[in-house]
Design a protein that fits this description.
Structural class of chain A: alpha/beta
Number of domains of chain A: 1
Bound molecules: zinc ion
Number of strands of chain A: 9
Largest sheet of chain A: 7 strands, mixed
Distance between the termini of chain B: 60 Å
CATH class of chain A: Alpha Beta
Number of domains of chain B: 1
CATH topology of chain A: 2-enoyl-CoA Hydratase, Chain A, domain 1
Order of helices and strands of chain A: HEEHHEHEEHEHEHEHHEH
CATH architecture of chain B: Alpha-Beta Complex
CATH superfamily of chain B: 2-enoyl-CoA Hydratase, Chain A, domain 1
Strand content of chain B: 15-25%
Oligomer: heterodimer
Number of helices of chain B: 12
Structural class of chain B: alpha/beta
Helix content of chain A: 25-40%
Strand content of chain A: 15-25%
Number of strands of chain B: 8
Shape of chain B: globular
Chain lengths: 284, 277
């Protein structure tokens, strides 16, 4: 019985992951960093890392989950939680529907339970294709529910962050999600449970100033832009050009805000190792 | 009092003669002793903090500082704190907890400073840490939004048991200019943004984001600062008295629940997480 469900869950995730990286009629991919053209198949085979320069392409949430979780272990949490329109903001409902249709996602975050290297955990993944991964009340609620689920079931928590900042159309309620998620993490941490945050390109704004920066361990993908204020705003404020590599993952590592920059090819193994290192009594 | 538009309130909230943190400290407290520095890197004058007596009770007072003169404004970076300011604030809040005294924070900032050094020293981490730690402080925390409360830079001092707002203060995800420029690529549409953002004290009270509204004299606080400060005193006294009846753990638990409920999705299609098999 269990294996039938596992197979079905695996097929479901594989289908959703496939949709994440399906671009009709597009056989060649141009790398935005080095400008080289590559066969899409070759880029896909390298986990969507540019074979030329190592640029890490953004990943869809389900695609990411299919790369990280053991096959057949995926079980989505609160899949149907949708954005509301708390400020009755003109045009917001239509924009939500367009984003849902374009991405196949209900919101900018997907949360799930599953196993990595056989160890059960809760994983949340933000998807920058949906409203640029901005923090809506529904995103904040999904992340908080995932934290609470992990706390209740005494599971480690992994959050993949990717966000352009606040969901403008939800105004102050978007801001309040920073307090809500951070407070939930404080309670989670008091239970002695592990939280790993993985910062992916781009992690900015309110997400940086809340759960992204609160991991017991903070990992980052190479080259990811990580900061509170965006580079454009900073440049306008100080009126100087910003130094090469400013706010990138390597810069954050050098400045003491990231434990390790981990290439995508080693991410699953690194997470698996960290989960093992934090098991009760430290035994494997 | 005539109904002001949101844009008119923004203008009043930014009035250069509006009472600032120094006025509130002089008017509400006695024997204020300023404490400087984050003990890690430097002193950030954009946040002022220390210990004082409030009706003879020791309290910790923290507030963003905007200057009234050009010189003063430059010195305190126009009230835009860096990570050192937030870390100093956290240091003082932890100290308040150690000595079991209530915390009052006063917020008037256009936001956290978007600068190169601020980023290099972890502006995001500093704000996140404050949200995290404030949510579990076991002493009463009361915030008054006195002018502008913009972005995470304001919230980093406002995870409080009671968030009070002056009648013409505004509290928002970012400035109306920033909002218009992000959403419509046109900062000139800021007045239109004001109308949509739900940033006024009555709007936020209705949304449940704030807990009380403190009346201002007709035309704004700058026209009668002493009267405004008396109103703030009245509100602070009332809310503090109520909070002092609660135990420390109770305060933290209720504060948590207050923020936990914010923006719970209205669409109610969410299934509660299932139990592990
Ligand atoms: Zn490349």
């Amino acid at each position: 019985m269990n294996s039938i469900f596992a197979k079905r869950r695996n097929r479901l995730l594989a289908m959703k992951a496939l949709r994440d990286n399906y671009i009709p009629g597009d056989r060649l991919t141009v790398c935005p960093k080095c400008g080289q053209e590559h066969q899409r198949g070759a880029v896909a085979k390298d986990l969507f890392v540019c074979p030329g320069c190592g640029y890490h392409f953004p990943l869809g949430a389900y695609h990411r989950l299919s790369m990280i979780l053991d096959s057949g272990s995926f079980r989505e949490l609160n899949e149907k939680l949708l954005a509301a329109d708390p400020l009755s903001f003109p045009g917001y409902r239509e924009k939500q529907r367009t984003a849902q249709r374009k991405t196949g996602l209900n919101e900018a975050a997907v949360t799930a339970t599953g196993t990595i290297g056989g160890r059960r955990c809760v994983v949340g993944v933000m998807d920058s294709r949906f409203f640029m991964g901005s923090m809506s009340a529904a995103v904040g609620e999904k992340i908080t529910l995932a934290i609470e689920y992990a706390a209740k079931n005494k599971l480690p928590l992994i959050l993949f962050c990717a966000s352009g900042g606040a969901r403008m159309q939800e105004g102050i309620l978007s801001l309040m999600q920073m307090a809500k998620t951070s407070a939930a993490l404080a309670r989670f941490s008091e239970k002695g449970l592990l939280y790993i945050s993985v910062l992916t390109d781009p992690t900015t704004g309110g997400v940086t100033a809340s759960f992204a920066s609160l991991g017991d361990i903070i990992l980052a993908e190479p080259g990811a832009l990580i900061g509170f204020a965006g580079p454009r705003v900073i440049q306008q404020t100080i009126g100087e050009t910003l130094p090469e590599g400013f706010q990138r993952a390597e810069y954050q590592e050098e400045h003491g805000f990231v434990d390790a920059v981990v290439p995508r090819s080693q991410l699953r193994e690194t997470l698996s190792r960290l989960l093992r290192l934090h098991e009760k009594g430290g035994r494997s | 009092m005539k109904n002001l538009t949101a844009a008119e309130r923004v203008a009043i909230a930014r009035h250069p003669q509006r009472p600032n943190i120094t006025d509130y400290i002089d008017g509400l407290f006695t024997d204020f002793f300023e404490m400087k520095g984050d003990r890690l890197c430097r002193e950030d004058p954009a946040i002022l903090g220390g210990v004082a007596l409030y009706h003879d009770r020791p309290v910790t007072v923290i507030g963003t500082r905007k200057g009234k003169t050009a010189e003063e404004s430059i010195r305190c970076n126009f009230g835009m704190p860096g990570p050192e300011g937030y870390r100093k604030a956290l240091r003082l809040m932890r100290q308040a907890e150690k000595f079991r005294r209530p915390v009052f924070t006063f917020v008037d900032t256009s936001g956290a400073y978007p600068g190169l050094e601020a980023e290099a020293r972890g502006q995001g981490e500093a704000i996140a840490r404050n949200l995290y730690e404030m949510s579990r402080l076991t002493v009463p925390v009361i915030t008054v939004i006195t002018g502008e409360g913009n972005s995470g830079g304001a919230l980093a001092l406002a995870v409080a048991d009671r968030v009070l707002m002056l009648e013409n203060a505004v509290y928002a995800i970012l400035s109306p200019e920033g909002f218009a420029s992000i959403l419509w690529k046109d900062a000139a549409r800021h007045e239109e943004a004001c109308g949509l953002m739900k940033l006024t004290a009555p709007d936020l009270l209705a949304l449940g984001v704030t807990d009380d509204l403190i009346p201002e004299p007709e035309g704004g606080a700058h026209l009668a600062p002493a009267r405004t400060i008396r109103e703030v005193d009245r509100a602070l006294s009332r809310h503090l008295a109520a909070l002092l009846k609660e135990s420390g753990p109770n305060l933290a638990a209720k504060r948590y629940l207050k923020f936990r409920k914010m923006g719970v999705s209205q669409s109610k299609e969410a299934a509660p997480p299932r139990e592990e098999p």
